[in-house]
């Protein structure tokens, strides 16, 4: 699979609007997805030390916040 194909697959996957995006509407979900993913890629690669490994996690892999006691 070429790099271009994987980018297109990412765009198509992200182009499915989230509920809040659907409420706001989108004239071009694919262009919106491309812009979101491009910005994300830029932020992901910025200021990364050469010996750093980027971790890719999903929201279900995050830590559940602990509520302070009353």
Report on the architecture of this protein.
It is a single chain. The chain is mainly alpha-helical. The protein has a domain at about 1-45. It contains three helices and no strands. It has helices spanning about 5-15, 20-25, 30-45. Helix 1 packs across helix 3 (about 30-45). The protein is flat and about 45 Å long.
In short:
The chain is mostly helical and 70 residues long.
In percent terms, what proportion of residues is strand? Answer: under 5%
Helix-strand string: HHH
Question: Rg to the nearest angstrom?
Answer: 16 Å
- Helix/strand structural class: mainly alpha
Largest pleated sheet:
none
- Termini distance? 54 Å
Q: What percent of the residues sit in helical stretches (DSSP H or I)?
A: 40-55%
What does the average pLDDT come to? Answer: 77
| Helix segment tally | 3
How many β-strand runs? 0
**Which spans of ≥5 residues are poorly predicted at pLDDT below 50?**
none
Give the overall shape: flat
Task: Set down the secondary structure blueprint.
Layout: H1 3-14, H2 19-24, H3 29-45
Labels describing this entry:
single chain; 70 residues; mainly alpha; 3 helices; 50% helix
């Amino acid at each position: 699979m070429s790099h271009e194909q994987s980018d297109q697959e990412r765009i198509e996957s992200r182009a499915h609007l989230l509920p809040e995006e659907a409420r706001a509407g989108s004239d071009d979900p694919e262009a919106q997805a491309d812009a979101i993913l491009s910005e994300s890629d830029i932020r992901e690669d910025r200021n990364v030390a050469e010996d750093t490994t980027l971790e890719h996690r999903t929201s279900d892999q995050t830590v559940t916040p602990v509520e302070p006691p009353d």
